[in-house]
Design a protein that fits this description.
The chain is mostly helical and about 130 residues long. It has helices spanning about 5-30, 35-70, 75-90, 100-125.
Length: about 130
């Protein structure tokens, strides 16, 4: 595994995570249909985008271990389970304001889909 392949895969996944994070914010704002929801997400979006870059790097290193040692079979199930493991606990936590169940479900589904698509990108670049 060359460093160039890892960096390229990381950049692609980081770009995908940024697009998906923005799309999730828009989706949640539309589903919740609450006034002022967009201004709430605007402040959090910059912080989330910074963490998405770090998250993409860690996921790329994890995928590199998977594709270089265990092979490429079943990558979709691995990233589906990893996405569920990472996102479901954060969406099930009660927040200061209670989220409607539909908003939590849409957010968790979008985050899990974000991981599965990232797995597809990494399978394409590293597999």
């Amino acid at each position: 595994m060359t460093l160039t392949r890892l960096v390229l895969a990381w950049l692609l996944v980081a770009a995908w995570f940024m697009i998906a994070t923005y799309g999730t914010a828009v989706l949640i704002a539309q589903v919740s249909q609450q006034p002022g929801q967009g201004s709430r997400w605007a402040g959090l979006l910059l912080v989330l985008l910074r963490w998405r870059i770090v998250e993409a790097g860690l996921l790329t290193l994890f995928a590199s271990l998977w594709f270089d040692s265990l092979g490429s079979g079943g990558w979709w199930l691995l990233f589906l389970l990893l996405g569920a493991l990472v996102t479901i606990p954060t969406w099930l936590q009660p927040g200061p304001e209670s989220r409607p169940r539909l908003v939590a479900l849409c957010g968790a589904g979008a985050d899990i889909a974000r991981y599965v698509v990232a797995g597809a990108i990494l399978a394409w670049r590293l597999g």
